[in-house]
Amino acid sequence: MKKIMFKKLAAITCIMAMTLTIFNGCQKSDTAKDSAVTSGAGSTAKENNVEQNKEKGKPVKIHILNRVNAEVIVEDNPILKELEDKLNVDIEYEAPPINNYNEKLQISMAAGNIPDIIYNWGGADKNYEQWAGDGLLAELDDKIQNYPNIMATVPEDYWNAIRSTKTGKIQAIPKCNVDNYWGFIINQQWLDNLGLKAPTNLQELKEVAHQFTHNDPDKNGKDDTYGLSYAMGTFVDMIPIKTAFGVVDGIKDTDGQYKIGQKKSGYIPYLTYLRDLYADGALDPEFFTNEYAVDDEKLAAGTAGIKVGHQVDVMGLLANTPDACERFTYIGPPANDKGERNSYITPSMWGAWMISADADVDKCLELLDYGMSKDGFVLMSLGREGVDYNSYDYESRSVDRTAEQENTLKGITSSYFTFTYAKDGSSAIVENATTKERLDKYYNDYNAMKSVVTGIRVPSIKAPLYTTFSADNPDLITKLSQMEVQYIVGETDLKTFEEFLNNTYFPAAEAMNTEYVQWMEDYDAAK
Q1: What are the domain boundaries of the chain?
Q2: Given this model, what pLDDT does residue 229 score?
Q3: Is 9-23+181-346's fold the same as 43-178+350-426's?
Q4: What is the mean pLDDT of residues 443-456?
Q5: Which of these, 133, 189, 193, 123, lies nearest to 161 by C-alpha position?
Q6: Class of domain 43-178+350-426
Q7: What is d(CA 403, CA 331) in angstroms, rounded to the nearest whole number?
Q8: H, E, C per residue of 275-331
Q9: What one-character DSSP code corresponds to residue 335?
Q10: pLDDT per residue over 361-417, tens digit each?
Q11: Burial of 430 (0-12, 13-18, 19+ CB in 10 A)
């Protein structure tokens, strides 16, 4: 057969440590407006700022520790200078190399030499919980409401995600990422060649994957294609297909009850759907051994016609596939059996900004708040108007700048440098959408998806046993993953798989499931 057939169990075990990370970002909020501070870059504006700062007194010194790429030079940085002039602050910016940033962070916190504003890449991770519990971080609950740009930028559900489980307090400001709507990137040329339309439900997706596999979609006269490629992480986590089957934590099952994913009524049908694709030859036979981004490579090479992806992935492919805009289309998730096309969005923080308990907390929040205003967001993302870019349209995220300006900007700012990566749900620019045609392509696909898909926000679940279950039970998780793969590829039948779930996995997960259900019920009651 043309496909590389399934390797036996011994070949599976070595690849089960990989993980698939779901990104999802910010939600537009109408609860507050941006502050009225403007970003004038002219000399008159700077002189006025200097005069105002003299009247305000000595600038407040703020020491920032951040994880910044090496290309960005913080010494005499013009964007930092703008921030200093506008807010009457003296910024000491410390940016250790990315490779040893966490080591530097740990040393600083352990030694008590704590900067005023500290970036924590892991967000609400174990380190954050430890430092919050040790009293090293400022409690922000009673202060953040006074900073309208922070409140307008950070979606409400992010605050629950960042709240310390040790203290019950908010002790960091989330750095927002983009709202990611998970769906598929599909070969539009293959659809056109076969006279097909983009699939809208599970049956149509199965049919298109079949046609892509067996009907010579590239018209080369060879039997050398398959429908759906995938790069597996710890579990078989095909998000848009799982969504259609309701196998999503943070939502109720069809009986109206909360339960972990493996207990949901759609879990076995979800895996059975993939089993059918595999048996048809339409699912990449190497899905369980593909390394990260190999599915991108197979899509670009024309050996697979569909991959899991979100709205920026076509633009991302442009880096290695110059004709990606012409070849590929982004589509949303398939509809469930009720005809609903939903996308479940969890808080997607790109780390968080902690503030030292000993800092001038309000001045630190004022600085972060400005960085999350419209003007501050544009300044920190794109630099100074008239210097680093010529003009910018906030609504379309379209920037007019020369190649020289873009190259120079890399030395003074980056996505790491900003206080928020996304505002009103989007980053400052759409990466690689460097022409009007590319930007139009992005919005055509994105808006088409948004017109038929409902975005539903779900919480970041912080039930302790739930959050640590995989790490506390590595052998069990590996076995579950192996059993999922074996069932999909036909090496294990349904009876054997269900016996494993009922006799081994569910008993081990019972305490975690009980705690998860209670946490979700408490979360609903508190809303």
Answers
A1: 9-23+181-346, 43-178+350-426, 464-526
A2: 97
A3: yes
A4: 96
A5: 123
A6: alpha beta
A7: 31
A8: HHHHHHCCECCCCCCCCCCHHHHHHHHCCEEEEEECCCHHHHHCCCCCCHHHHEEEE
A9: B
A10: 999 999 999 999 999 999 999 999 999 999 999 999 999 999 999 999 999 999 999
A11: buried
Are the CB atoms for 475 and 424 separated by under 8 Å?
Answer: no
Each residue of 246-301: pLDDT tens digit? 999 999 999 999 999 999 999 999 999 999 999 999 999 999 999 989 999 999 99
- Look at the block and give the residue holding tokens 């979700």: 520
What fold, for 9-23+181-346? Answer: D-Maltodextrin-Binding Protein; domain 2 (3.40.190)
- For the entire predicted model, the pTM comes to 0.82
Query: If DSSP states are collapsed to H, E and C, what string results for 189-233?
Result: HHHHHHCCCCCCEHHHHHHHHHHHHHCCCCCCCCCCCEEEECCCC
| Maximum average pLDDT range among 21-30, 45-54, 342-351 | 342-351
- Please say whether the beta carbons of 353 and 65 come within 8 A: no
Taking the CB of residue 75, how many other CB atoms lie within 10 A of it? 7
Amino acid identity of residue 11, one-letter, is A
| C-beta of residue 351 within 8 angstroms of C-beta of residue 102 | no
CA-derived radius of gyration, the chain: 25
Tell me what percent of the chain is helix, strand and coil, each rounded to the nearest 5: 45, 15, 45
